[in-house]
Amino acid sequence: MKAKADGRRELVIINPFCPEESKTERLEKIVKYSVGDCPCEVLTTVEAVEKTDLRNRRILFTISLGQSGINLSWYEIMKYLRLNRDALDGAVGGVILDGNSEIFTKSTGRSLVFTANRAGCTFPGRPLVEGTRTLKNYNIQANNLHIDNIGAYMEAGRSLVENIMNYEPHKKEHPNVLVLHAGNDRVSNSLALWKMIRKQLPECVFNEISLRNGQVTDCRGCSYETCRHFGEEGSCFYGGPITEQVYPAILACDALVMVCPNYNDALGANLTAFVNRLTALFTTHRFYDKSIFAVIVSGYSGGDIVAEQIISGLNMNKTFALPGKFVILETANDPRAILESDGIEKRAETFALNMRHALIE
What we know:
41% of the residues lie in helices and 17% in strands.
């Protein structure tokens, strides 16, 4: 890959310094293979990140986590990104995490993507490549590619870099936007906030589906063969509103908006069932050309946890693209109290403008 004349297609690698070389050997091997001959600039400290204009750049985050799942240099960089909410505006990113444990890579990846996205970074579908200690998470990919697990890990990294460098948003004059919710219109703060946002987007064609009414059964964990069989028919073992209404709407839409009240620091049951049931359709379709947005209102706190669940389920797993600043997070307790929140109309307008920038030509 060659950089454009303005240098913007040069890849920036944010590789937080790790003092123990033995922990970084495998990651260095993966990154070298993944990047190939793409022109690169490598930043290893928060001071270097602060001095570099990262807006509109292509960025690969590469972090060695060791056994503890902690890289202290990354925490310094994460602090900077959380305090500078426009630092990554227009950037497109991906993540390679390498650990010496079977845990911590996914949780770190979700937190990283959430933080960078809040600072303006867009992430294409499936932006996380993670290597656990044993690399057992590559058993299926290695079998499909007829190579060993380390080879599958390396190929995943190379595909990620290609996705970062080649990503372009899919914009239209009148994008089709699917909105999923399970709220009560009379009392829901989340729906009230969404309506404030929607009125700022007259160019969009909206299809709003409530999962509140009717039986929405969660995934039963069918075998892959069974799941794929139903997926090829655009259906699922359980049928119902998910296959009858939601599947066709997913295939038709350009973007998906999840309207999510925060129940116990988790997605509500019906929305969780939707994410799980989407697997059948995913066996025969990929969603790289569709964007995901979220409207999350918490009664107390924890909206970031719900946002990370959406990132994990729909961006990292189901390949929806994650536009920069994909989520609006608010707090409101009493029914429709969101309407009295100071400055809420301005924040709703700002979020709508962000959606317009991501979706509309």
